[in-house]
Structure formats: structure tokens, C-alpha cells
Amino acid sequence: MSIRQAAELWSVTKSTLQRRLKNKQMAKYGRPTVLIKDEERELVDRLQIAAEWGFSLTTFDISGIVKRYLDNKGVSEPRFKTNLPGIDWAISFLCRHKHDLLTRLGENIKRSRAEVDANVLKKIFWKLRSIEGVSPDLMINYDETNLTDDPGRLKCIVRRGFKIPERVLDTSKSSTSVMFSGTASEKLLSCYVVYKAEHLYDTWQQGGPRGTRYNRSKSGWFDGVIFEDWFVTVPLKYFQKI
């Protein structure tokens, strides 16, 4: 079968068949991307590093980076207003690199909590030596955290597989507080919930995990009185049973 006959049979132009037969490089369909392949790869790498360092970026942040890059190059992109990419471009960018990037809801933390260096970690391990030989049942680790209902949280761009992205901010939103605690022998103690309210209602104390204790404060955070109540009713009560 000749090229002409094949073109007529399959409704394909002869030039297309000739290029295929000669294994010539075929250009991709559609308009070229604003950034070339190497530039997009560089941007992906930088976004991953930023997320690992606790400075996860949003789609709007990416658009700002691209605008600044185009401005510095002296390029005027007609598809963007004032060189600023829109949300459609950001979504397309993420789709092109879906194996490396994804969006997750970021967890805001204060800058003071993020400032942990090697010296701080060394001091922690040095103090651990003082409890060598103590039964794991007598070691309790506790942590106060907040429910994930913060309206100020944003979806951030991170490396695929990244579980909890964090955004280092000078302030973080406060909400209902929960104290979790457990022993080194993997025993989970009762939760302790603190609501931001003047009064504690019965309906707020229903449906929680068995043994959960509830309290309230004006700020929604643990104060000295509430912390003492947690200590007496949760860890001390546990120690008395050992």
C-alpha cells in the first residue's frame, strides 16, 4: 500500500505519514508552556525544598514566583495579565508534575516552635540519660494541640508523600485544645479537651472517646488551673493504679 492510499484510507495527511515513517521528532500538541522543561523542573525542586524547610507555598505563591522570574528576564507573556499566572495555569502546572507535587492542608506553627537546632536536640538526649533504667510504664509523654478546624489554614504545595506540611508564621490560630498523653510502653491515657467558652455544656461532653475529660477557659488554651486538673485526673490517677 502506498502512502497516498494509506492517507486516503485513514483520512490522514501524507506529510504526517511521511514524518512517522522517517521517525522525525513530532512536536507536542497545543501551545508551548510558558516555562521550558528545565525551568519547570527547577521550580519543582525549589517547591519541595521549601516544604521540607517548613515554608510550604500556595498556588498563589507559585504565580508570584513565576511573575517575578518573567519580569527579571524581561519577558512579557501575553497569556498572563501583568505577567501574573492565574489559577488555571497553577492547576495545569501541578497536573504536569503530579508525580512530584500535590496539595495538602498546611498546619500553621509559630516561628518559635520551628526554631529547633542541633544544640536543642543534644540537650534533650542528654537529659534522657538521667531516666535510664526507669520502667517504660512510668514514662509519660504529653502534648497539647488544637483541633483541625482552623479557617486560616491553606493548601500548600509539597513533595508527593509529604504527610503534614507546615507553614512557619509569627502567629497561629487558636481553637479548642486537646491534651494527648501516653506512656513509653504504648499505653494511651485519657484525652483532656478544653473549649473556648464561659460555661461547659453537657452536650459538649457527649460522643467523645471513653474516659475523656472536658473543661473550658476564656482563651481555649490550658492555663495553670486546668493543667493542674489534668495532672491530677489523668497521669496521677494512672500512677495510683500501678
Automatic annotation (TrEMBL):
Pfam families documented for this protein: HTH_psq
Any GO MF annotation of the entry: DNA binding
Ranges for domain HTH psq-type: 1-27
InterPro entries, A to Z: HTH_Psq
UniProt-recorded name of the protein: HTH psq-type domain-containing protein
Native organism: Rhamnusium bicolor
Upper taxonomic lineage: Eukaryota, Metazoa, Ecdysozoa, Arthropoda, Hexapoda
